[in-house]
Design brief:
The complex is a heterodimer of chains A (about 110) and B (about 120). Chain A is mainly beta and about 110 residues long. Chain A has no helices and eleven strands. In chain A, β9 and β10 form a beta hairpin. Classes of the chains: A mainly beta (about 110), B mainly beta (about 120). Chains A and B meet through β5, β9 and β10 of A and β5, β9 and β10 of B.
Chain lengths: ~110, ~120
């Protein structure tokens, strides 16, 4: 199985701050990497697919990048609704695997 | 809009079977892929498996001997059965529509709200 190491596990941040969450795969995954957001009420929605493509309706302050084994999600200027859990997920090979999650908290 | 809703017992005894239903509205389960994912206490997420438009299934090898995903197209529902559960199967279980456009473009597009299942005697 491809292991996805996501860092940090939690991140205190302020409104308006720029933050970056990292995801490292145990082997190259050819950009086959998605990002999801889970709100405190449990709702999960997709944010980014295929490393850098924004899902419809996702604000442009979200962006994704990376290649090989290293990927990242960046939020350019935090809004109140962005404080949530974030997960990466690889689909290069089965079984599909997720990162361990990053909790974005208000500082 | 696609909506998914999980239902089933919130408490299961060790060694018994866990059975959940995902009811789908707004989209036919005879199209695309439909999966189960679980989130453990402590936030780890695990893909369990999926059933596709034709009824074919794929499972996480870590569960292969215990899991079964089936469907009822007349009710637009699909189901999860996990046998011989232990306390380590305590988790929030999510059903999701897996959008499969191509081998390079696929993701979990719509998720249910999740249902907590506790395994305890």
């Amino acid at each position: 199985d491809i292991q996805m190491t996501q860092t940090p596990s939690s991140m205190p941040a302020s409104l308006g701050e720029r933050v970056t969450i990292s995801c490292r795969a145990s082997q190259g995954i050819s950009n086959y990497l998605n990002w999801y957001q889970q709100k405190p009420d449990g709702t999960i929605k997709p944010l980014i697919y295929y490393t850098s493509n924004l899902q419809s309706g996702v604000p442009s302050r979200f962006s994704g990048s990376g290649s090989g084994t290293d990927y990242s999600l960046t939020i350019s200027s935090l809004e109140p609704e962005d404080f949530a859990m974030y997960y990466c997920q690889q689909y290069d090979s089965s079984p599909l695997t997720f990162g361990s999650g990053t909790k974005l908290e208000i500082k | 809009e696609v909506q998914l809703q999980e239902s089933g017992p919130g408490l299961v005894k060790p060694s018994q079977s866990l059975s959940l239903t995902c009811s789908v509205t707004g989209y036919s389960i005879t199209s695309n892929y439909w999966g189960w994912i679980r989130k453990f206490p402590g936030n780890k997420m695990e893909w369990m498996g999926y059933i596709n438009y034709s009824g074919s299934t794929s499972y996480n090898p870590s569960l292969k001997s215990r899991i079964s995903i089936t469907r009822d197209t007349s009710k637009n529902q699909f189901f999860l059965q996990l046998n011989s559960v232990t306390t380590e199967d305590t988790a929030t279980y999510y059903c999701a529509r897996y959008y499969y456009y191509s081998s390079s473009l696929n993701w979990f597009a719509y998720w249910g709200q999740g249902t907590l299942v506790t395994v305890s005697s």
